[in-house]
Amino acid sequence: MSLQEWLEYGWLRPHQSSRKEISDLFRIIDRDLQDAIGDISADWRFGIAYNATLKLCTILLYAEGYRPEKTLQHFRTIQAKTKALLEEKEDTIKENDHVTSRNA
User: Is the pTM of this model over 0.85?
Assistant: First the structure.
């Protein structure tokens, strides 16, 4: 299912990002990664890593011109990363999967 189909289902909405918005998200990621280096618990380190991951996925989704709807926002953002990264390469991936399964 494509990001366009997600839009049609109402799971995403159009979003026009700006250079500043993306730059601000990268600053948050940098801050989070620096904070994770400190002497903190594994639970807190995981939470920080999750936030950084969420921000990276948000950047990918914004770059494609979308933002998630409020319902299941984190889930949709993280799930969309694969679609944003691979949508253009889907045919190649399917062909590779077909060849791999045929040769197994």
Answer: no
